[in-house]
Amino acid sequence: MDMDADQIVDALKGHFNVDSDIELARALKIDKRTVSAWRSRKRVPQRFIGMLTGQSSHPHAVGPVYWHNQEKAAFCLALFRYARAYTSEFNEKGFNEALKVLDHANDDFWALMRRAQSDIGKLEGGNSTSAALSMLIHDDIENSAAINEQSHRIMRENRPSITWSDGTTTDAKGRPLSSS
User: Fold this and answer.
1) CATH class for the region spanning 5-61
2) CA of 136: how far to CAs of 56, 72, 139, 166, in Å?
3) In the chain, fewer beta carbons within 10 Å around the N or the C end?
4) What is the CA radius of gyration of the chain?
5) For the chain, what are the domain ranges?
6) Bias category Basic and acidic residues: which stretches (predicted)?
7) Is the per-residue pLDDT at 122 higher than 50?
8) What is d(CA 54, CA 31) in angstroms, rounded to the nearest whole number?
9) For residues 89 and 159, what is the distance between their CA atoms, to the nearest angstrom?
10) Taking the mean position of all CA atoms in its chain, how far away is CA 74?
11) 43 Cβ neighbours under 8 A, 6+ residues apart
12) pLDDT digits (tens, 9 = 90+) for 20-58
């Protein structure tokens, strides 16, 4: 991979859908000072570079029993959003069609988890983790259409193309492709 440390850190931020070095550290389950150390040393360990190339496992390979409160809250929020989004997937497409989407359910969930971590992290500043979670779930319920659309967008962006029984194919962003 021909990128310097700053470019790799930026690529990891994009990969985990986070905006700051601190949020990236949370997503990677490392100390927040580690990312700045990579920048100053101009070197990122191979196991993290491997996450960009698919050669290294996801940090969530660590069992939930070892998660901090922030990760547990993000998991709850992601599960809440995931359940709501899949309910509408099943209602919109019907059971047989929705089963095709379930092939990508794992990727969908972890994409929503990364977003939930980011959302919890942004709200957690002056609040407890449980208060941040409560506020986000309340906001999700109050703005359910917008949050549901956001969840669908996040999931679509992380899915490969899907061919439906009527012959239509959509790309990862949900745009129709030619039916061949």
Assistant:
1) mainly alpha
2) 31, 14, 5, 38
3) C
4) 18
5) 5-61, 65-177
6) 150-159
7) yes
8) 23
9) 14
10) 10
11) 5
12) 998 888 888 777 788 998 999 899 888 788 888 766 655
